[in-house]
Amino acid sequence: MINNFLRENKIVAGILTVLRLYLGYEWMTAGYHKLTGGFDASGFLKGAIANPVKGPEGNVLYGWYVDFLQHLALPNAHIFNTIVPLGEFLVGLGLILGCLTTAAAFFALVMNFAYMFAGTISSNPMDILLGVFIIAAGYNAGRIGLDRWVIPFINKFAAKNNNTDHVKRSA
To answer: Mind listing the pLDDT tens digit for each residue in 100-122?
Structure first.
């Protein structure tokens, strides 16, 4: 019932547009400032490795993530210096334009969780909550945006390719 309400109601589409614009602005400006401000992830990565998230008993909760940061992310910080700000900017742009909205919200959630696994709380819980509503709403979240034209085009293209693949397998 709630799922149908989120996915089909036109008033909800308007509310989701406001949430989407807010969240998109936050992501896009964060990415823009990193792209234009000489962003270097190595300091953040070193801090997350040195001070991992710990439980009440003092044990490291996400050891696997600390290993990922230490052995993959930090040695390749130059790559993360590009993909983090670019990813943030593109997620923001997608949310603002309402283009591939659910994909943008999904990648926003991935980044939010990555920051939280590293021990950064900031606005991440609120961003996650808004992102969950946007993903749950699906197409309705981008109805007032470019998804109105992009999603039907993708569906038409996918259906055309699916029919072509079926014909090829039958022959």
So the answer is: 999 999 999 999 999 999 999 99
Inter-residue contact 20 to 145 (CB < 8 Å): yes
Decide: 138 and 102 in contact? Cβ < 8 Å.
yes
Residue type, 65: Y
Closest by CA position to 143, among listed 9, 27, 4, 5: 9
Long-range contacts of 64-67 (CB under 8 A, 24+ apart): 65/117, 65/118
The beta-strand segments (E) located in 36-165 are: none
- Compute the residue count for the chain: 171
Phi, psi of 54 (to 5 degrees): -120, 150
Residue 32's CB is within 10 A of a number of other CB atoms, namely: 15
**DSSP class of 162:** H
